[in-house]
Structure prediction request, 502 residues.
Amino acid sequence: MRTVRIFDTTLRDGEQSPGASMNVPEKLQVARQLARLGVDIIEAGFAIASPGDFEAIRTIGGEVEGPVICSLARAREEDIKRAWEALKDAPRRRIHTFHSTSDIHLKHQFRVSREEALKRSVAMVQLARSFVDDVQFSPMDATRTEIGYLCEVVEAVIEAGALTVNIPDTVGYTIPAEFGAMIKAIMDRVPNAGKAVIAVHCHNDLGLATANSLTAVLKGAGQIECTINGIGERAGNCSLEEVVMALRTRRDLFNADTAVSTEEIMRSSRLITKITGMSVQPNKAIVGANAFAHESGIHQDGLLKDKSTYEIIRPETIGLHKTKFVLGKHSGRHAFRTRLNELGYTLKDEEVNSAFERFKKLADQKKDIFDEDLEALVSDEVTLVPEVYSLVDMSVSSGMNQKPSATIKLSVRGKDIEKTGQGDGPVDAVFKAITSVTEAQSRLLKYEVKAITGGTDALGEVVCSLEKDGKSVSGHGADTDIIVASAKAYINALNKLAARKQ
Ligand code: KIV
Ligand code: ZN
Prediction:
């Protein structure tokens, strides 16, 4: 059985999804979860792209143990040096450099000849090798590159020291049979192909990223590049949970598997949704809300008789346990902390204390506290952004025959300010009052509310995305009162914008 490496690019290509930008503490939290998930390589960012990317790579490289930490770098000297600067404290590090190879890109975008592109690719792989042993090269837009030239480039970069050569379907153009043939041609025609791992990086423009990646594995690819929930540029990247579960479920056919701890899939998916504000469609394979919901009577009948009749994956395999009652009003701090640890949260003492206080308040409002409630409570607790604004108090009045109005008291850099706003509805009134306190000039891109668990006493979770000066951020808030949750989400997003400005 071969082991296929999982190269996770949620923090680099995934972050290129519109509205999915993450700050450094959020990226660190994601990287820690990816390490728990058991991915082999984390592409933590593109060091030269921004100071935030640089800092994220440096922090993750210094703090996250297990996976190899990688930075992307164009085939340019300054990029490679910057990647090295960001990675030098990481015990396991990789530089991933790339250059386009398709005539379309060379002619229309870079205006260089094939010979020049090849020379530059080789030189930059050599430069990267002077800093690290683990160098990866990608011929960008490989699937629209003439195969003879592509093989020439692959051979030359391996000769120059690349230990991994990644074949990207940059524009999501190829189809499984064609891509499989391309991988096979590389394996057969490149004499030193055996000295490197051949990887694949598929985009999902035609909805074929998973199928293309899996076909490549059948033809000998040894590394798949992917993202949690398939987020990424345009229609996204190959989805990690899909390729991992396809390999696991059909090991018989692929004769290959990954080192991923699949029980961490659901938690990873939820974390990305929470941080990026990008929800997963209900019918999404593996992690969608309906992925394990059986509606048809015939299916339900079969399942009751034997699960194997209609279930190819046990929900527990991806960490989806039946929601169960865990704690209540009479539970103590010890039980609370123990359950959080079991759920994978290790909080500092003061964070546990304040989360416990909030838990007690919640238990007064809501009889049964489920794992999902705890997760929402804790994710509210772990503040990943400095709080310029925090909610002190609020009251709202609305009804059928009155104009909704809200009074908000915020602490702004330690000073309490109170304002009232009126709006079309209670949420609108709250947002107006907060805007008048903070004098925010951002634009609301998205507002979404959902119940975390069933019942009218459920915690409501609100995600709100804001845009300012071309940059967008997502805020998150949870509360049994959805108007309060909305205020928290808006304030969280405003804090992120303030942190970004600083
Ligand atoms: O899609 C792509 O070609 C990329 C490369 C940088 C690998 O993301
Ligand atoms: Zn890409």
Summary: The mean pLDDT is 93. DSSP finds 17 helices and 18 strands in the chain. The radius of gyration is 25 Å.
